[in-house]
Amino acid sequence: MLFNSLPFLYGFLPVTYAVFWRLRSRTSRYAWLAVTGYVFYSFWNYKFCALMAFSTLVSYLAGLGFLRWDDRRRRRLCLVVPITLDLALLAFFKYTNFLLDSVRAAAPWLPLPVPAPLDIVLPVGISFYTFHTITYVVDAYRGVIRPTRNLFEFACYVSLFAQLVAGPIVRFRQIESDLDAIDRADRSSHLDRGWSFFAIGLVKKVLIADTIAAVIDPALAHPAELSTAGAWLCMLGYTFQLYFDFSGYSDMAVGLGHLFGLRLPQNFDSPYKAVDIADFWRRWHISLSTFLRDYLYVPLGGNRRRPLITYRNLFVTMLLGGLWHGASWTFVAWGAYHGLLLAAYRAAAPVWDRQPAWLRRAETFVLVVIGWVLFRSTDFGMAATLLARMFAPHGGTAVAGAEVLTVMVAVAGAVALLAPNTFELRHRWSPLPALAMAGLLVLSMLKIYGSGGTPFLYFQF
Description:
By secondary structure, the protein is an all-alpha fold. It has 17 helices and no strands. It is globular and about 65 Å long. The model has no long low-confidence stretch (mean pLDDT 93).
């Protein structure tokens, strides 16, 4: 089920909302949100609900263990066992065939048997809810949070449908106070902000991201036919499609959280306004970048040691961040690319920072666009073709719909580079902006009626 689908908008959401506000106790509201989360998840594949329930139960029991035991050995077990199980499940479902494919590719040069691929279906959202349970266990071990004794509260946190399948990666401590006060939530105080966030996210996804995708997807299916101008236009289109698609989902998730009295964290802070690559990662997919910082980069040593060790930590962190996005060597290369950029910026920051802000912003944007080539490409051949088209003059066939794409890139660029982001808005609509938003919502709904809802790009991760 998709946020931008008719069954969700006219069925699931109204029923979930109406019943939730009829319930009065904390536990009943926890239970209702947990159950609806599993119902929401079952629309993709009900069989994987058991997998999420298993991960939830293991981490919940680990939390009870932290409450009960003070000795170091048992607490270490409560830390290691659930994280090992979670990562093992994630590795099996997401990376087994990637590993087998890599072995098969190396077989002609190595004396290795050639294994057959396994029939494995990737559970949607497994990367996100796995990180939720890991942050909970690690924070409980560190004493950052006090684990909950209420199983329904923890199940609600893990399976909350608003952020279940594509984030943001919400740490328990970020919504703990709202969960504790869920029986005292004031529906009216959250309503306007919730619907405002949701409406803006829907418009970003349906009218901007999906319109761009309709033009660039057919064009990028044949990259060798693109001209230099066409390749740049398509990659600029993808740059904005990815942002408006994922930030649109994140806005909708935040809006849905508000509708149920839960304040989910910001996930995007105008990333294309970044003045350097480190600034970009402070603004892009904030919940993931802070996860990688706090649970990987800092434990590796962060920047507390000599420069070469810091560069290594940056590179390893981004390499694994790239692999998290998908079981493909192009994602690994994208992560490595950003690791090298972060290390290079750290080494050359005094020189870089002396440039005018507008120039730093433009240079950072171009570097990010180049990285998206790896992110979008299905293999290195496609990436090489696109980069060759972009940086060496080539003729080619015209992109079908180039006029529409040019307009959409201009509109998306103006919004992403000049306008305030969703969290910078007051969400108090005066009549004229409210009328304009209503018009955009009508157009979005007409588009959904006409073509149905399209999946969000980050569902695949």
